[in-house]
Specification:
Layout: E1 2-7, H1 19-22, H2 27-40, E2 44-49, H3 53-63, E3 69-73, H4 82-90, E4 95-99, E5 121-124, H5 129-143
The structure holds ligand CA2.
Ligand CA2 binds next to loops.
Length: about 140
Amino acid sequence: MNILIINGPNLNMLGKRNPTIYGSDTLSDIEAMCNNCAEKHYASVDFRQSNHEGEIVDWIQDSINRFDAILINAGAYTHTSIAIHDALELFTGPIVEVHISEPNKREAFRHVSFIEPCAAHRVAGHGAKGYEMALEWLFNQKQN
Ligand code: CA2
């Protein structure tokens, strides 16, 4: 199983600011955690981050027929991007939406997700560990 992991804007700042909301793990720590988890399941992950909406749309389009699943933390684009929503609709494999915090328990403008209608599963509010939980969910699907 080959999984594309997409991280949206500002997630490159993880572990460097706002530890009370997002914890102290850096994005590199999360990448290492995802690689370890995938290895245990004889799977591979391609872990990426971008601050640019169009680049994320390009990655999703290019992932069609190249990846079995997408795990996405679209950051603030979660709440604004119809373009990312439309690109995800083209992908036929499972999509998992991940958030470090629980946006539904924060400001009202974070309560809308344009990713959610495209996702087979959502993990939010579990910190960096949520990425591992999302991967484990995907691996369990494969067995069912
Ligand atoms: O909880 C999440 O994972 C979010 O996707 C994070 C986004 C936020 O806009 C979403 O509502 C929820 C923000 C990521 C910004 O990450 C930072 C990390 C450290 C310092 C500053 C920003």
